[in-house]
Design brief:
Helicase, Ruva Protein, domain 3; Tetrahydropterin Synthase, Chain A; 3 domains; three-stranded antiparallel β-sheet; flat; Elongation factor Ts; cytoplasm; Transl_elong_Ts_CS; UBA-like_sf; elongation factor
Length: 307
């Protein structure tokens, strides 16, 4: 199967591996990206793939929470240039769309476009009017809406938006200390980028695939290749524990106090406030993740390497 320069460029973006390694992996995988990433990981050339780690579009991410109605929203709206994120009309549109989502609970972006704003026009009409003013292509890309106790956090003026959903008892969510705690957890999600809330929320197939990759890495390492199977399995157990600690929010070291895990910090705050706190779920949006900017010079560089 012929591997295009564009495919090699995309795999390099997803893994940060060298171009020739990416071409070899894609060739071996018959062009299958997921398989190619797995091959690179097995060879120790790529870490656990963060395929959307490179920001590739402009605009902004925004998050907000209404304590009175107990609804939180995180939204991403994309544009062509970074100047748009600083435009007052653009920011006002993003915030208005957020309020519409909070109040009307549309099922998806298409449904959101049909919702009415406070001045009677649809969100779609408001967007088209904004495009006429700003003269850039603007799109509402995605949003998540949670009901219940939440914490919303916007980082970097709209580069990241975090929404965390909690379960609480005894009304402790109304206390200032809980608000501070909620922001801490949202900032933890922004900084440490966990993939899951806890070990129980990690799908079994994800754990199985991690073990498979770890075994392949051991097989390719002269230091571990000939070790007894029982020893390898013991090593795998340790590696999986490390995987959970790095990828599960409650198991991570708390960024503001490395002596505590997030779970320990949560238990401490709950005890101090006289109630219970459970982190239920979270969403972390990074502006432009998974989208692609024009990179003509880089594409030419890759093309020259793979011809």
């Amino acid at each position: 199967m012929a591997i295009s320069a564009k495919d090699v460029m995309e795999l390099r973006k997803q893994t940060d591996c060298g171009m020739m390694e990416c071409k070899k992996a894609l060739t071996e995988a018959d062009g299958n990206f997921e398989k190619a990433i797995e091959i690179l990981r097995e060879r120790g050339l790529a870490t656990a793939a963060k395929k959307a780690s490179r920001t590739a579009a402009e605009g902004m991410v925004y998050a907000d929470y209404c304590p009175k109605c107990k609804v939180g929203v995180v939204i991403e709206v994309n544009a062509e240039t970074d100047f748009v994120a600083k435009n007052d009309k653009f920011v006002a549109f993003v915030k208005e769309a957020t309020q519409v989502i909070m109040k009307q609970n549309p099922a998806d972006v298409e449904a959101l476009m049909a919702c009415k704003t406070e001045n009677g026009e649809t969100v779609d009409e408001a967007l088209k009017n904004l495009i006429l003013v700003i003269k850039e292509n603007i799109k509402v890309r995605r949003f998540v809406r949670y009901e219940g106790v939440c914490s919303a956090y916007v980082h970097g003026g709209g580069t990241h938006g975090i929404l965390v959903n909690f379960e609480t008892t005894n009304g402790i969510e109304a206390k200032d200390e809980f608000v501070t705690y909620g922001k801490d957890i949202a900032m933890q999600v922004a900084a440490a980028n966990p993939g899951y809330v806890d070990e129980a929320s990690v799908p079994a197939e994800v754990v199985a695939k991690e073990k498979e990759i770890m075994l392949a890495q051991m097989a390719g390492d002269p230091k571990t290749a000939n070790k007894p199977e029982a020893v390898k399995q013991k090593m795998i157990e340790g590696k999986i524990k490390k995987f959970f600690k790095e990828n599960c929010l409650v198991d991570q070291e708390f960024v503001k106090d490395g002596d505590l895990t997030v779970a320990q910090y949560t238990a401490k705050v709950a005890k101090d406030l006289g109630g219970d706190i459970k982190i239920v779920k979270f969403t972390r949006f990074q502006k432009g993740e998974g989208l692609e900017k024009r990179a003509d010079d880089f594409a030419a560089e890759v093309a020259s390497m793979v011809k």
